[in-house]
Amino acid sequence: MSIIEKAQKLISKKINALSLLDTGWHNRPYDFFLIFGQKDESKSPWIKSSWDVNFEPYFDRLIKQTDSLKETGIRVIKYKPEKRVTKKDNKEFIYHSEVKSGRLKWDLKSHEKWTVLNSTDNYFLNFELSTPIWTVCEKRDSPPDIYITISNERDIENKRETQFGYFIVIAIAKNLKIDSKPILKELSEKINAKATVLKTRKWGKPETVGNWTFVNWIQDTFSGGIYKGQNLHSLDFSELEFEPAWEIIYQEK
């Protein structure tokens, strides 16, 4: 099992432990967006310059339309390369240790902490945002108003063949009545996303629609296995069938 798969499994276990505490979360409906990003890593969301200009302003417009801006929480998994030497034969090797970011909020200080200047600084794996934070969701007996994840689709050594560089999941509770479609279309145009698609989905309801299958909850959505049960990177991206299961918000020019 690769480091990406191990980390994704850990993320799912942690969040599932929270969601299983309360089966009443299952039926809240969301506008459920998937964004498939370009492969130029210098323009990825975790690169500070790209985040500041291409992503944060649009997410900020969404989050500020909730009552939970100050209660927004972020979790990030990233690794830093360290030179180490084997005890047996004194050979140098690179070890990737996890960077502990501490508690992160939706503010400039936290953005400075979790983003990286370039792809050689750290290996970024996953970003998760919950508005409000999970402990507040538990207390109010409801899943988040807004939930966002960003996953790096490259492996830690950048040897994996990919069809898209990053994968973003955005879920916005429908009862908030946020007009999110034009905001995310504008974002998608700016980054020239390979595709941005939208459907309605309930938080805790596994579902199969056409070729697309989601086996668990919204917080368990990763790119692996969601289309015909296959790895999306083993398929020709241009041949993926989004309609009629999805509304296509944007496709790359």
TrEMBL record:
It comes from Pontibacter saemangeumensis. This is Uncharacterized protein.
